[in-house]
Amino acid sequence: MIQAPKGTKDILPEDSYLWQWLEEIMRSEALLAGYSEIRTPVFEHTELFQRGVGDTTDIVQKEMYTFLDKGKRSITLKPEGTAGVVRALIENRLYANAQPTKVYYLNCPIFRYENPQSGRLREHHQFGMECFGAPHPTAEAELIVLLINILNKLGLSELSVNINSIGCKNCRPKYYEKLLEYLKAHSNELCPLCNERMERNPLRVLDCKEEKCGRIAKNAPLIIDYLCDECSEHFAFFKQLLESSDVPFKVDPFIVRGLDYYTKTVFEIIMQTDREGLALCGGGRYDYLVEELGGPDMCGVGFGLGMERILMELKNKNVPLPEAPKPTVYVINISKEDLPSAFKITRELRNNGISADCDHLSRSMRAQFKFANKLSVSYVLMVGGDEAKRGAARLRDMATGEEKEILISDISEYILNGGEK
Predict the structure, then answer these.
(1) In this predicted model, what pLDDT tens digit does every residue of 24-79 receive, in sequence order?
(2) Is the dihedral of CA 344, 346, 350, 353 positive or negative?
(3) How many folded domains does the chain comprise?
(4) Which ranges in 79-159 belong to alpha helices (H)?
(5) 399 assigned to some structural domain
(6) Are 131 and 52 found together in one domain?
(7) Pair (303, 353) in one structural domain
(8) 374 lies in which domain range?
(9) Is residue 192 part of a domain?
(10) Residue 53 has what DSSP assignment?
(11) At what angle do helices 138-154 and 229-244 cross, to 10 degrees?
């Protein structure tokens, strides 16, 4: 039997309505804040991620799905959302419009080759928002407030924000010098990969998931102690904005994020659980990425949120979720000769905005009733018999069991009025 590849998952009809509910809330909140939807290709040229995400990151070195196409071009399935959005911004000259440019992507497939575990799949889907051309920390504060509003509306509470600043081109060289000096003194304790990338990008060592590297990282110099005046002022203003927005936060100097393009602000949304704080999503500012990928000098800020992770936590916390929609009316044909009439009435109900279905399997009347019960419909409409000669049908309210004869021409109005004419 052919099965789905490891690390992928089917979204079945019994669950897809929850995705639609999730998407509706995310989309409406993004639109309220002036963000418009953008959709980028599932695959891009590999160079985009090597240059944008960074060739010393775990994503590029370990996790990308990369292959040669028939033209011998190196192609990569999207491992994150931001780089593709930046490529689209540059290629379509969105930077020439009035700024800022505010976009979001929804249900975006993301591919990472890693060991599948709870809430983390090799193919998962992200909701993300990106704001370009806004240098002030109001941009990242806006995104954080939007994120918390969305998560609250979904039913997740006890949220806070961990923040850090990882500096800019002006303050990083001095910090890198101190960090490299410290790491070299502990090189014999670091994993081979960290020793390899230490010279090229020492910040990546702080993001290593190896336990022994984590112990070294805890005592490393902190970049927040080496910020230049501009980064310090930006960070102070950012904290002030969060305070004035009643957003609970704490400074976590060990957040560096797993992508090379971040500058200044980085953040994670944390939810308290029985065990510990759980990072639901993360993001930050990337002021050099547009220029690095061939565009103008243009700042940006954004985040990515895993949709599977959010649905999993909603279920873990027993948050009341909406019920799957069901047909309002099931139209039963009393005999096979009545099937064309039942089919026509079903179509007319739908044309009037009423969810309706009818038999497609030539079932007996009893079997049709049994199927209608499985669908949990509100009404069953029985078409045929003596009522048909009078241009009517019998309508049963499935909640009360009450039946009444009603003219076929009046059925839609009756149902739309909640059982009153």
Answers:
(1) 999 999 999 999 999 999 999 999 999 988 877 778 888 999 999 999 999 999 99
(2) positive
(3) 2
(4) 82-91, 138-154
(5) yes
(6) yes
(7) no
(8) 329-416
(9) no
(10) I
(11) 40
The C-alpha atoms of residue 156 and residue 16 are separated, in whole angstroms, by: 20
347 and 306 part of one domain: no
Boundary-marking domain end, from 272, 292, 316: 316
Q: What are the distances in angstroms from CA 389 to CA 338, 341, 384?
A: 12, 12, 8
Distance CA 158, CA 38 (A): 31
Written as one string, the DSSP assignment of 189-231 is GS-HHHHHHTTT-GGGGGG---HHHHHHHHTSPPGGGG--HHH
Over residues 120-143, the pLDDT tens digits come to 799 999 999 999 999 999 999 999
Q: Which structure tokens are listed for 126?
A: 């992200």
* Domain stops at, among 266, 290, 316: 316
On whether the CB atoms of residues 170 and 228 are closer than 8 A, the answer is yes
Residue 8 CA from chain centroid, whole number: 16
Determine the pLDDT at residue 209: 78
Residues 35 and 78 in one domain: yes
Does residue 379 share a domain with residue 245?
no
Q: Which amino acid is at 85?
A: V
- Alpha-carbon separation of residue 101 from 36, 39, 80, 327 (angstroms): 9, 15, 19, 41
